Amino acid sequence: MRHLIFAAFATLALGSIATAAEPLNDLSGRQMTVVDQQGERTIIRFESEGLVRVTTAAGDATGRWKIADRELCFEFEGQEPDCWPWDGTMPEGTAVPAYNGNGPFVLVTLEPKRDAEP
Q: What pTM did the predictor assign?
């Protein structure tokens, strides 16, 4: 499970690849979809107050996230914090290839922000 979570988070070092109109420094309410080379999907949900939920085929995990000092960091119980470069530029709705140097290439999509339901 730990390997799958870190493989998903490895994809978040995307800032230097993508461009956006303005930096995205609050991911609350946002979701990213990660697809590996075997087609397996990981869903990363960024909730308010720094809570993150990760869903993989192997199971679910809940932890903490924050953006500080141009890094997106994740913390899960019993694990060291895991931080990735983040400049806040990532296009919505476009699959972006990513590689962290420790695993295979994956595709990451920042899902378009959805308005709150009435």
A: 0.74
- Separate counts of helices (H) and strands (E) for the chain: 1, 8
CA-CA distance, 112 to 81, in Å (whole number)? 27
Three-state SS at 12:
coil
Segment 44-90, tens digit of pLDDT: 999 999 999 999 999 999 999 999 888 888 899 998 887 777 778 88
Kindly compute the dihedral angle of the four CA atoms of residues 28, 86, 109, 76, in this order, to the nearest 10 degrees: -60
Sheet holding 41-46, edge to edge: 82-85, 71-75, 59-68, 51-56, 41-46, 30-35, 106-110, 96-98
Contact predicate 61/76, CB 8 Å: yes
Could you tell me which residues come within 8 angstroms of residue 70 by beta carbon, excluding any fewer than 6 positions away? 15, 85, 86, 87
Neighbour tally for 69: CB within 10 Å: 8
Separation CA 96–CA 91 (nearest Å): 8
